[in-house]
Inverse folding.
């Protein structure tokens, strides 16, 4: 039994769209060409899902739920009126619902948890009787999936999390789209160690380990090219149209703690509210969150996405991977499969399920502590032959067992079981 499927995904980083539109002039492109160009750049998602689904006999379409300008193109091309009084989120959902009405899929496949309340999942099924099942592939714990028919969980711990909620869930690790290998270019000048992704900040909860480890490695002069998603965040920026306010803000930035100490001494006698408020503003400024590029302005680089990132991974000896602090028991993020698939030597945490994916210190290098990470980075940095041997074995494993094609064959079987 074949089926018609729509894959729905969203873009978490506005820089992805900004970066894409900087390189591509999309203003005069129609919706279909614009969407294809975006997918062909392998930004966040790849065109591989729909291509493979079609090869298996399942007509497939992609919707980028929160790419607003692209969604507006679809709305205008299909002569659909849009109430401008709607909120931004309501506009997104309105257009999405119209797309579902137009495409009439039997299966809706959310690549991450939907950006709307789970009650609307029920509404979709009630409104559109052609929808048979709604599925989600998710990488983080959420309580917004209770009306989903099947959850593909990207780690064993997450799979248990959803099953404990009484939800239908099965394990589906992330993967590597092997077609990326035909898109990358070999560069004779290789980077030694690369980190790409979110780097966290001093107040970060989900990325504390990542921030602390990277900060320590940079402080010890490890040759890491760190491409941070937070590169454009600027906690030092204080904007005001008021001249007096700008002078006041400049004093805070320049003198900070010294100024605070002086003002406190003055205010012991004066007990002036304006001085007290000034001191509080200094406290707020000093306690702001700081990013790695605030500490290491010459060692942190702007983020890379799509083919640019894949080219970087393809042309580096070692890819450093540090998972988030959300699910600490398991490994299995995208970077593990992207780096190994592209032939970079992956160094990643030794989690309890690592052996289900790779053979530690043969196909990937693993560490259990910051000190072990530093020791193993030094070994790999000094032994290019060992580094190459491990990267070759890791790539072989990924191309044999962790490709998008093999994962989608499993997805297809699970959907057909669900439909029977």
């Amino acid at each position: 039994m074949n089926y018609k499927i729509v894959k729905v995904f969203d873009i978490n980083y506005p820089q992805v769209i900004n970066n894409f539109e900087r390189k591509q002039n999309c203003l005069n492109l129609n919706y279909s060409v614009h969407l294809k160009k975006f997918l062909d750049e392998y930004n966040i998602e790849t065109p591989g899902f729909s291509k493979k689904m079609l090869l298996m006999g399942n007509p497939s379409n992609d919707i980028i739920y929160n790419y607003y300008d692209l969604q507006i193109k679809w709305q205008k091309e299909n002569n659909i009126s849009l109430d401008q009084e709607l909120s931004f989120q309501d506009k997104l959902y309105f257009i999405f619902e119209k797309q579902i009405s137009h495409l009439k899929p039997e299966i809706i496949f959310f690549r991450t948890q939907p950006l709307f309340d789970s009650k609307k999942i029920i509404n979709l099924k009630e409104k559109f009787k052609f929808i048979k099942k709604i599925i989600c592939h998710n990488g983080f714990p959420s309580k917004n999936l209770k009306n989903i028919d099947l959850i593909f969980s990207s780690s064993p711990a997450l799979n248990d999390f959803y099953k404990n909620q009484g939800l239908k869930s099965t394990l589906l690790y992330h993967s590597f789209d092997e077609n990326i290998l035909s898109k990358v270019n070999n560069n004779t000048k290789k980077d030694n160690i690369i980190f790409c992704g979110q780097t966290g900040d001093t107040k970060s909860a989900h990325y504390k380990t990542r921030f602390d480890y990277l900060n320590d490695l940079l402080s010890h002069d490890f040759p890491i090219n760190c491409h941070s998603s937070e590169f454009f965040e600027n906690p030092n920026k204080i904007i005001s149209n008021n001249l007096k306010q700008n002078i006041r803000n400049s004093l805070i930035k320049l003198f900070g703690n010294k100024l605070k100490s002086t003002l406190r001494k003055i205010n012991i006698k004066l007990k002036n509210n304006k001085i007290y408020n000034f001191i509080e503003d200094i406290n707020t400024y000093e306690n702001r969150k700081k990013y790695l590029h605030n500490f290491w302005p010459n060692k942190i680089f702007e983020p890379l996405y799509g083919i640019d990132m894949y080219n970087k991974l393809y042309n580096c000896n070692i890819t450093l991977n540090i998972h988030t602090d959300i699910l600490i028991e398991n490994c299995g993020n995208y970077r593990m499969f992207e780096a190994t698939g592209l032939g970079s030597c992956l160094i990643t945490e030794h989690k309890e399920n690592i052996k289900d994916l790779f053979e530690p210190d043969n196909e990937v290098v693993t560490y259990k502590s910051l000190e072990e990470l530093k020791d193993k980075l030094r070994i790999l940095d000094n032994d290019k032959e060992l580094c190459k041997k491990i990267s070759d074995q890791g790539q072989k494993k990924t191309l044999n067992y962790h490709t998008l094609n093999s994962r989608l064959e499993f997805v297809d079987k699970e959907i057909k079981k669900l439909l029977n």
User: Anything to note?
Assistant: The longest strand covers residues 191-197.
